[in-house]
Predict the 3D structure of the following.
Amino acid sequence: KCLKCDCLWSEHQHITYEYETNIVRLDGSCSLADIDKRISDLRDEKTKIEDIYKKLAKFLHANSILPLNDDILEYLRHFIREEQIKKNSDSQNNDVIQGLEEMMKSYEQEMELFKRTIHSEKDRSSSKDVLKSDEIFSLVETLYNLPINGQNIREQVKVLIINQKKLISKREVLVKLPAKADSSTLMRQFKNIKSSN
C-alpha cells in the first residue's frame, strides 16, 4: 500500500528514478561555431557521397545489360491493385497500401535521380571516364571512411549483405544427379555444347 494515501500499489504511477536539474552555461558563439562547422562537414560529406554516386551510376549504366528496369514500377502497381481489392473486401490494410505507394514513389525518385545523373555525366565526359571494376572498392572504402556517416554506411552495407546471403541460401537448391545421369542423352548434348565453345 501507498505510504502517503493508503491506496493500492497498482493505482499509482511508479517512478524508479530521481530527477535532478543542472544548469550549464554555454558560450553562444562557440556553440554556433560548432553548429556551423557540423553543417559544413555534413555538406562536404554530401558532396563526396554525390560524387561517388555519380561515378557508380555511370559504371552501372555502362556495364549493365538492361540499363533501366521499369518493370519494378509495374510490379509495385500490381501489388497496390491487389491490396486495394483486399481493402474493398473489408481488409484493414491501409498501412500496406500506403507503404507500397511510398516505396513506389521513392523508387521513382531514385530512378529519376539516376537518369539525371547518367544524362548529365554523358554530357560532361566520354566512355573512357567510366570506372574500372577494381576502382569501385576504393570508392566504397572512401564512403566507409567518411567521418560522420561512414560507420552508418558500413553498417547498412553489412545488413544488405546478410540479407542477400539469407535470400540466396533460401533460393539455391543443390541437385545431386544420379550416377546414370552422366551417360544420358541430355548430358552428352551438354558436354558437346560445352566442348564446342
User: Anything to note?
Assistant: The two ends are 87 Å apart (CA to CA).
